[in-house]
């Protein structure tokens, strides 16, 4: 419990000190998501089912692609799959989804006000 508390405090201090870099990383994730979504717009129809599939693939593509980088590096060195691959995908997905929700809420607030 004490180790987890110290880790959370250390990560919080690290994020506070690295805030400009964290904002840049989040912006890069959002830009990549929008780029993938635009490319998939050309593939899928404009109907409700096409939009759902396009949004789903765009939401899942970035976390999987980003997690593949350390997984491939791990596989090249150890010759077996990265044990926590899905945990990495989950964390990246959570960060990306949070950024998208915040961006959506800000856009709705601007449009309403």
H/E element sequence:
HHHH
Q: Could you tell me the strand content as a percent range?
A: under 5%
The average pLDDT is 92
Number of helices: 4
Cα-based radius of gyration, to the nearest Å: 17 Å
The rough form would be described as flat
* Low-pLDDT runs: none
Helix content: over 70%
Total number of domains:
1
Major sheet description = none
Could you give the distance between the termini? 45 Å
Query: What is the number of strand segments?
Result: 0
Notes on the structure:
The protein is an all-alpha fold and 113 residues long. It has one domain. The chain has four helices and no strands. The chain has helices at residues 2-17, 19-43, 48-78, 85-112. It is flat and about 50 Å long. It starts with a helix and ends with a helix. The mean pLDDT is 92.
Topology:
Elements (H helix, E strand, L loop, with lengths): L1 H16 L1 H25 L4 H31 L6 H28 L1
Brief descriptors of the model:
single chain; 0% strand; mainly alpha; 113 residues
Quick take:
With 113 residues, the chain is mainly α. The protein has one domain (22-112).
């Amino acid at each position: 419990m004490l180790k987890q508390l110290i880790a959370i405090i250390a990560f919080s201090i690290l994020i506070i000190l690295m805030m400009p870099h964290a904002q840049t990383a989040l912006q890069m994730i959002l830009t990549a998501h929008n780029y993938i979504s635009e490319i998939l717009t050309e593939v899928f129809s404009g109907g409700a089912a096409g939009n759902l599939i396009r949004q789903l693939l765009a939401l899942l593509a970035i976390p999987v692609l980003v997690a593949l980088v350390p997984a491939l590096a791990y596989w090249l060195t150890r010759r077996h799959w990265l044990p926590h691959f899905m945990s990495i995908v989950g964390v990246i997905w959570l960060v990306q989804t949070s950024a998208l929700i915040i961006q959506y809420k800000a856009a709705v607030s601007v449009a309403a006000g």
